[in-house]
Amino acid sequence: MDTTEKVPSTRERQAQQRREKIIQASMQLFWEKCVEDTSMEEVAKCSGVGVATVYRYFSTKIELVIETAEFYWQKVAEKYLTELEQTDTGYVQLQKIMNVLERIFQEEKAFLKFLQEFDVFVKKYQISEERLTDYESGILRLKPYVTDALEKGLADESLFFTCSIDEMYFSLTHTLLAVMQKLAVGGEILSSDQAVEGNRQFRIVTELLLGGIKG
Description:
This protein is an all-alpha fold. The chain has ten helices and no strands. Keywords: DNA-binding, Transcription, Transcription regulation.
């Protein structure tokens, strides 16, 4: 059997480049405006192609938004998850994961703003779970790192908790993502919101979470 990988043709490469250019334009506009208020015409103008071209690649705005979400998670995962090593105690591994999430909080405000708006968009347009399968796969790329740290932590006694690994994983990640989005997007609406700097608040939350399950 021929196992040689198929080399994309020039036309296929150009099509992929054009597709990514449209997605990059949508990412920029979603940051500058918001997901709901950005039109396909604006995406076309920003990406330097005609509206018909945008619709050729993405038949609806919903399709474009979903693919942008998938692209965003892939981009962030490739940038940050490669830094995670699985050679320390469970506690130290989890601490390093928290440090990576803190960097994402500091450096990826546009990504966090998009995630918050994407959740609202999905609810508003009642997008089915089936259409979000690839998006969910992107989110779950972090899971093996966290569950490995949790399992190792229980084994080496650097961590202690009585709930299941999955319960702890989802509780930790949902809490941290919610805090990241709140502080990144709506962290300074009121004057009192500025009393404690966002990075400091996030660090306190991670210290509380880590301290609560330290062995």
